[in-house]
């Protein structure tokens, strides 16, 4: 009988850390999946993706099914970011965006936050 495995190597290229999940805590945040339901429990998140968030996302996409660029909206975006005091579950604080526009808007928010020193 073979000994019970206590862990396995981290899947991150070049990392030899032993872990019980796919990635060690150091690399888990680098390998977040596109589907938030599959995110590892040990990954720190800006806010919790729970049932309330899923319901908010569904309502926002139902109200705003088309992105400003004309493409189908696939992601719900907080107009006022939660970390800046925006209401996390208020449908009025959300709009539907396609993936590309959501990525661009998030990048702009990060740049604004850096300029303000937050």
Major pleated sheet:
2 strands, antiparallel
Low-confidence stretches: none
Helix and strand composition category: alpha+beta
| Approximate helicity band | 25-40%
Quote the distance from N terminus to C terminus. Answer: 56 Å
Helices, by number, come to 3
Strand content: 5-15%
Order of helices and strands: EEHHEEH
Sheet with the most strands: spatial strand order? 1-2
Oligomer: single chain
Mean pLDDT: 81
Overall form: elongated
Please give the domain count.
Answer: 2
What gyration radius follows from the Cα positions, in whole Å?
Answer: 18 Å
Number of strands: 4
How would you sum up this structure, described in words?
The protein has 118 residues and is an alpha+beta fold. It folds into two domains: 8-38, no CATH class; 51-116, no CATH class. The chain has three helices and four strands; from the N terminus they run ββααββα. The protein has helices spanning 25-28, 51-63, 99-116, and strands at residues 8-9, 18-19, 75-78, 94-97. The strands form two sheets. It has a two-stranded antiparallel sheet. A hairpin with an 8-residue loop joins β1 (8-9) and β2. The model has no long low-confidence stretch (mean pLDDT 81).
